[in-house]
Amino acid sequence: MSEQIEKAFQKQPGIFVNAKAIGKKAKTKNQRWYKDVGLGFKTPKEAIEGHYIDKKCPWAGMVSIRGRILTGVVMSTKMKRTVIVRREYLHYITKYNRYEKRHKNLAAHLSPAFIGVQPGDTVTVGQCR
Amino acid sequence: MGISRDSRHKRSHTGAKRAQYRKKRKFELGRQSGNTKLGIKRIHEVRVRGGNRKFRALRLDSGNFSWGSEAISKKTRLIAVVYNASNNELVRTNTLVKGAVIQIDATPFRQWYEAHYAQPLGRRKAKKDGQVESEELSKKRSNHVKRKIDSRKEEAKVDPILEDQFATGRLYAIISSRPGQSGRCDGYILEGKELEFYVRKIKSKK
């Protein structure tokens, strides 16, 4: 497939794809492992039906999402499989009883299950480490 | 030794240089790499954190390899390291690491196959008049065993690429254990898409 770009064979570690084809019972369906990350997040269709191999994908990889869930706006998608997310917030200055705008940038992994992510999109980011 | 695994000596995520505020701690220690080579077995034991042990294999010559589609494992001799995705140097020096593609001796697997299915595997088709049929093939079998072997007949088909490898006596396998940690070189025989992938890589390197 086209997803074998690296020097080592990309595969999901738990799946055994070389079972002998016993005549009629040849399993032609895409053998894929995926999981439900919990917290009410729906697992994308592309994660179940797609062919990509990504060990850092929350649904088809070996990471568990736990801890904080943050949201932000995508600033750049130029990196391979990661996006920069900009989170804006207001910081209160007590002396003047007023707020000031501040922001923090956050690099987050973008699973290949999400296609067509553009700068300006709002995303939800889950903590994994 | 001085190898430490801390992040305090590295620059932070923003690029700021971190000041050193404490000495190296024992729990951050790192050890020299084992660089397991092919040769007569030589394994050193290391006492690690918590009083546990790690077996640093310095030289290994055999390992337990599984044939996935037949669901069996046999102890086999290692012959040579053939491909390493990370570093060609490790191939040249025959260093055994997890994920290295190696060649292993095919005879234990062929013996098992011929005993299990009573069919020849990887035998040269060339006319050899003096060739004596292997002991497993021509063994006298009881009726019960004969019936069992007959019932396995349809499943006895082996992939042609694998069969060629049996003919040469060397199978391609990949190491899935960590010899420097467990002291063993275990793995599985490459089959199917994975085998094609690595065979292509090896050929394009030659």
Brief rundown of the structure:
The complex is a heterodimer of chains A (about 130) and B (about 210). By secondary structure, chain A is mostly beta strands. Chain A contains one helix and four strands; from the N terminus they run H-E-E-E-E.
How would you explain this protein's 3D organization?
The complex is a heterodimer of chains A (129) and B (206). Chain A has 129 residues and is mainly β. Chain A is built from 1 helix and 4 strands, in the order H-E-E-E-E. Chain A has one domain: OB fold (Dihydrolipoamide Acetyltransferase, E2P) (Beta Barrel). Chain A is 4% helix and 29% strand. Chain A has a 4-stranded antiparallel β-sheet, with no helix packed on it. In chain A, a hairpin with a 5-residue loop joins strand 1 (69-76) and strand 2 (82-93). Chain A is elongated. The mean pLDDT of chain A is 90. Chain B has 206 residues and is of the alpha+beta class. In chain B, the strands form 2 sheets. In chain B, strands 4-5-7-8-9 form a 5-stranded mixed barrel. Chain B has a 4-stranded mixed β-sheet with strand order 2-3-1-6. In chain B, strand 4 and strand 5 form a beta hairpin. Chain B is elongated. Chain B starts with 35 loop residues before the first strand and ends with a helix. The A-B interface holds A 4, 6-9, 11, 16-20, 22-23 and B 68-70, 85-86, 99, 154-155, 157, 191-194, 197-198, 201. Chain B: Keywords: Ribonucleoprotein, Ribosomal protein. Chain B: Residues 1-26, 124-152 are annotated as: Disordered. Chain B: One of its GO terms (molecular function) is structural constituent of ribosome. Chain B: This is 40S ribosomal protein S8.
